[in-house]
Amino acid sequence: MKRVFGAVCLLCLLALQTKAQTNKSNNTSLPIGVFDSGTGGLTVLEAMLSLDAFNNVTGKAGADGKPDFNKEYFQYLADQANMPYGNYAAENKTDLLKEHILKNMQFLLQPNFIKNNGSVAKPNVKMIVLACNTATAYALTDIKTKFSQEHINVPVIGVIEAGAKAALAYQKAHGTGTIGVFATAGTVASEGYPKTLQNMAKEKGLPALSVISQGGAGLAESIDRDWSYFVDTLTKARNEYKGPSLKNQKYTIDTSLLLAYKFDKSKNKLLCEYDDKGSCLDMQLNDPSNYVRYHLVSLLEKMLQQKTVVPMNTLILGCTHYPYLRDTIAKVLTELYNYKNNNQYRYRNCITAHVELIDPSVETAKEAYLALRAKELTNKQAVQQNLFFITIPNKNLAEVKLQPDGWFTYDYKYGRVAGAKKEYVQYAPFDKENISKASYERFSLVLPHAYKQIAKTL
């Protein structure tokens, strides 16, 4: 039978959990759930699959030559149909965002899913890792509260605290500097990282930190090939584009900074709308690397405007998609450190020669392992196959509005309202129809452990 949340109800899950919770030996054999708005959370799964930070026998810190999660298996869920999560705050739809997230928690906790009007068996999970900064920022507290109220004994781990810990640890070892937070617009709007960082500093008796944030509108979307932000077959600018441009009043490309942006113009990675005289009337980004360039320049320009006196030496990659572009981010930061304008270094007072890039994935994996041991949830039975799921638009819903690529239109996606009690999405295993060949190629290069497991299911 199909189950729905209504607004944020988890009552229907209690019966599903009771049997597993009362028999600890059965509970330990369940998979660990890993959730993200898209495929970015695979960076966290990769960290979990490759982590060797503890002794597997004693659970104490220290590598033993064996992956810490080698006896566990995983159930990954990407809410691809409803992403990007970062835009819900800007559209004043955080209540709708929370509803999406809680419905996805339901999927992970239930022992089946609906496919082609039939019920398909799958295990429920014993732990959930929110491998999504925006979901952590807006829904972690709600999830933990609901689970507590409904006596659902499933630990939930978020990524923000882990990233903040890693940033402070680097600062302690290498000296104090401004901590940059490069995240989705939604995560930045939540102020999850600055609040967590300042609270941690206060607990440690440290002075207030210098923190600067930049919302990377369009970057995660372009990495996940969202049609509103990136289409690799385009040859000219288009009206449906939602990213930074000359005409976008919120994310405006500043023509006086074109030399600083240093956009890649090859292979239609930068598109222009021309007038009859060949002048560019609008400029649109059409490649993830150009989104990186735009937002890093915007971050440093913000530091100049705010007259930040402490150079940035640490940058938290506050979206799990961003580590895919780690090398590009590092390269662009070095370019900007050396960038001259009117024969003067424009950003030398803003950043240090080396800016440490903090990927919260490893720290999140460590926290998950420690929670697994503390809750006595380590698997003692045979490891089963990892499962990978994605949400897709429910085309059986008469009202649904789709783009040419088959996903929700921007206006429909963010025009929906919370509490409508509609099944907007369906759940499907990873396949070659809903995830592009280019994405799988990226996984194989950047996420070898995760890709190996995904490939077994295709």
Give the gist of this structure:
This protein folds into 2 domains: 12-158 and 361-455, 3-Layer(aba) Sandwich (Rossmann fold); 162-360, Rossmann fold.
Features:
alpha/beta, Rossmann fold, 2 domains, six-stranded mixed β-sheet, four-stranded parallel β-sheet
What does this structure look like?
This protein is of the alpha/beta class and 458 residues long. The longest helix is centred in the middle third of the chain and has 18 residues, at 288-305. The chain has two domains: 12-158 and 361-455, Rossmann fold (3-Layer(aba) Sandwich); 162-360, Rossmann fold (3-Layer(aba) Sandwich). The two termini are 27 Å apart. Strand 12 (340-341) and strand 13 form a beta hairpin. The strands form five sheets. It has a six-stranded mixed sheet, with helices on both faces. The chain has a four-stranded parallel sheet with strand order 8-7-11-14, with helices on both faces. The protein is globular, with a radius of gyration of 22 Å. Helix content is 36%, strand content 17%. It has helices at 14-22, 24-28, 42-50, 94-109, 133-149, 160-174, 185-190, 192-203, 219-223, 258-261, 288-305, 326-337, 360-374, 410-415, 437-446, 448-455, and strands at residues 32-36, 74-78, 112-115, 118-121, 127-130, 156-157, 178-183, 211-215, 270-274, 280-285, 312-318, 340-341, 344-345, 351-358, 387-393, 425-429.
